[in-house]
Task: structure prediction
Amino acid sequence: MRVWLTIGVVIALVGALTGCGGGAQSGEQRVCSAETFTPNYVPLLERLLYWERFPVTVYFERDANYSDYYRTLALQGFDQWVEATGYVVRYRQVDSPDAAQIRVVFKPDTRNGLTTYTYYPSSGRLVSAKVEIGVRGNNPIDIRSVAAHEFGHAIGIGGHSQNPDDMMYPNFVTNVPLQITPNDLNTVKTAYCNYFIGRTRVAPPPNDETPVEATIICGHDH
Ligand SMILES: [Zn+2]
Result:
């Protein structure tokens, strides 16, 4: 019953959009609303952003805190989103920071994470992101979880869930692996809904707009 209801909603939505002609020009928000994929925590977010296309390019800073071990853990965290979205969300590692859309750095002085990104305010289209992953304590479960959480921000979730079970709850319990819940997945699907309802995203290039920067701070210390 639930499946049929969902299909009905999607058909109704597509039908409504087809009927409104050129209205899709005004961007992503018309294509999906917070009611399209539920349950979610879209209404709680400060913003919901998106990358124009996948794979998004990822570069790991080779500074004094870098290690292949940390990178492997971080990628396992990122891959949780790749798998949960059925490979809609994808990334590609690059060897140069200049070629990177998402830059990743490891921080030995904290267990928490932090993501800073730039985006076009009118469309929510992401330009760049920097992900900081706390590795204090060297706990592989925690490092993987923090990486997954921060990647959730880096792919567009601009805010946090209020449900402690969700990946995007701001705090975590050490040694308990974070999982992507239906709430988390539906929130990302809302940002990328064109991929999930078979529509092409129509987003006019923002010629005269300057990207703005925002930082999301996560964890117990804040
Ligand atoms: Zn966070």
Q: What stands out?
A: The chain has one domain: 2-217. The first helix runs from residue 2 to 19.
